[in-house]
Design a protein that fits this description.
Elements (H helix, E strand, L loop, with lengths): L11 H9 L7 H14 L13 H12 L4 H9 L2 H4 L4 H8 L1 H15 L15 H19 L1 H16 L6 H21 L3 H15 L1 H33 L7 E6 L2 H10 L10 E7 L2 H14 L8 E2 L12 E6 L5 E8 H9 L1 H11 L1 H7 L6 H16 L3 H13 L2 E5 L5 E5 L4 H8 L1 H5 L1 E6 L2 E3 L11 E5 L10 H4 L3 H14 L1
Parallel strand pairs: 2-5
Antiparallel strand pairs: 1-2, 3-4, 4-5, 6-7, 8-9, 8-10
Helix pairs in contact: 1-3, 2-4, 3-4, 3-9, 4-7, 4-9, 6-7, 7-9, 8-9, 8-18, 8-19, 9-11, 10-11, 11-12, 12-13, 15-16, 20-23
The structure holds manganese (II) ion.
């Protein structure tokens, strides 16, 4: 993303140019009107770093244009701070820009009001009322998200620019805002499948939260990246030769792992040599079948590490990520990770929900106009809906918060049914969680389970990629109170409790 450096960079033409690059028929009148209105509203206002205030909403709108959002979202991005900072009402926005833009702007403003401003940074997760309040705000964030995912995308763009301009703030504010970014916004971007955005946010936050470690990683990786780059270039040339004449038109590029994820890996194992995907080669080809063809050519030339071949095309990650991954012994036997995907998969991996948004909107212009509020594609928002569902059943805020913490912020594993259906579960899940993830009926009638064909006990903790087979009996006595000790997902726990309440 291009940074905006000075006042002269505030240029409507630049915004129009970026929007026109993906949508020539966008409503440019709306964008111009919003630009002029917001610029006028913020006249004379300054940001903490001395910049003219309008630079911020303008920067956010550029980020939204990079996400290829529709004109109404761009407009709302430009207007996103006028309700809070200027003497403007929602009614006025509605009259001037229509009800949809007004809904988006007020949605973002409401999220801003609960923007955790007075909450101190704290590493203590439990029993801290401030902390709980902060996470309670999350609940509203999620609800807003399910109502219209564009509100969240505007909020993410807003946060991205705020992170870029964090230098002007006091150290404790920098830490607090960065913590929020790491704990709330980056996981959100991840769950929406926006890989590049998430990585950006994490690295921006990493620098402020752990400045020493950040510097260390930068220094440590510098040399390695340099050496690897040379090697990857050689490898790339060789791959180009191998794939030449196969009619694949491959685009071969290198990609470096982002700093925060290197930091996390090194915390588990300090041996940087063991991070095989520190730098990877990415091959982009036109068709899905070309991906497999390319993989075949690579494997017939370089021996793969069998356990590291991953087919996320046949079995996408729950956030929609698709790609083939393989790790091979490359030139001079050097271990090299290669990712293969189509252009469309690539765009989705980088942009997630926002990439979808663009496709879907252009396809269903009519349906969209009729429905007003927009939803991200079903598969991507399934977890949001589940969460809301559960929220209705939750008795108290604390219970909801407890569920949120476990469901969203723990690491995830992917477990499979014997038929190959994939289930996204939090780390620490047991067969009970799996059973209820499949269906309430399955959970309620479960009498045992096999993992990778072996009988296991109910408290068995599932590992990533396990194949789980639930054994049910029609006349089973139903869930036992004990199960609450083993189930970690809010869904399973809620259903078990509901069952116990009925029977006890
Ligand atoms: Mn803002």
């Amino acid at each position: 993303m291009q940074k905006i450096l000075s006042l002269k960079d505030i240029d409507l033409k630049e915004l129009e140019r970026r929007v026109a690059a993906y949508d020539k028929k966008a409503d440019f009148d709306l964008i111009k009107k919003s630009f002029e209105f917001a610029q006028d509203c913020h006249k004379g206002q300054k940001r903490k770093n001395g910049d003219c205030y309008f630079m911020h909403p303008f920067a956010a709108s550029l980020i939204l244009a990079d996400m290829e959002m529709d004109a109404k979202t761009i407009s709302a991005g430009l207007l996103h701070d006028v309700l809070e900072n200027c003497d403007v009402t929602e009614k006025q926005i509605e009259q001037l820009f229509g009800s949809e833009v007004a809904m988006l702007v007020s949605g973002v403003t409401k999220l801003g009001e609960i923007d955790f401003d007075k909450i101190e940074a704290s590493d203590e997760l439990k029993d801290d009322p401030k902390r709980l309040k902060k996470i309670e705000s999350l609940r509203k964030l999620f609800l807003a998200m399910a109502k219209d995912v564009r509100v969240v995308l505007i909020k993410l763009a807003d946060r991205h620019h705020n992170m870029e301009t964090l230098d002007a703030l006091k150290v404790e504010d920098q830490k607090r805002i960065s913590n929020e970014t790491l704990e709330i916004y980056a996981p959100l971007a991840d769950r929406l499948g926006m890989g590049r955005f998430k990585a950006d946010l994490e690295d921006l936050a990493f620098k402020y939260i752990y400045p020493k470690e950040y510097l260390k990683i930068v220094q440590r990786t510098k040399k390695i990246f340099h050496a690897k780059e040379k090697y990857l270039n050689e490898m790339r040339n060789l791959l180009n030769l191998l794939l030449e004449g196969e009619d694949l038109n491959p685009v071969i590029e290198g990609r470096a792992k982002h700093l925060y994820s290197i930091y996390k890996k090194l915390k588990k194992d300090n041996d940087i040599e063991k991070i095989y995907d520190l730098m990877a080669i990415r091959i982009i080809v036109p068709e899905k079948s070309d991906c497999y063809k390319t993989l075949g050519i690579i494997h017939s030339n370089f021996k793969p590490l069998i356990y590291r071949i991953k087919d996320y095309i046949a079995v996408p990650k729950p956030n929609g990520y698709q790609s083939l991954h393989t790790t091979v012994f490359g030139l001079e036997g050097k271990i090299t990770e290669i990712q293969i995907r189509t252009e469309k998969m690539h765009e989705e991996a980088e942009k997630g929900v926002s990439a979808h948004w663009h496709y879907d909107e252009s396809k269903t212009q009519k349906g969209y106009a009729e429905h007003k509020a927009s939803f991200a594609p079903k598969a991507k928002t399934r977890w949001i809906n589940e969460l809301m569902d559960w929220n209705k059943a939750a008795h108290s805020t604390e219970e909801f918060i407890e569920g949120l913490k476990i469901d969203i912020f723990k690491d995830r594993i992917f477990a499979f049914s014997p038929k190959g259906d994939v289930f996204d579960l939090p780390d620490g899940s047991t067969p009970i969680d799996f059973a209820y993830a499949v269906h309430t009926f399955i959970g309620d009638h479960m009498v045992g389970a096999r993992v990778n064909s072996k009988m296991i006990s109910m408290d068995h903790v599932l590992a990533d990629r396990d194949i789980v087979e639930i054994i049910i009996k029609k006349n089973s006595p139903g869930p036992k109170r004990d199960w609450l000790k083993y189930a970690v997902t809010s869904r399973a726990r809620g259903r078990i409790r509901a069952h116990l309440n009925k029977t006890e």
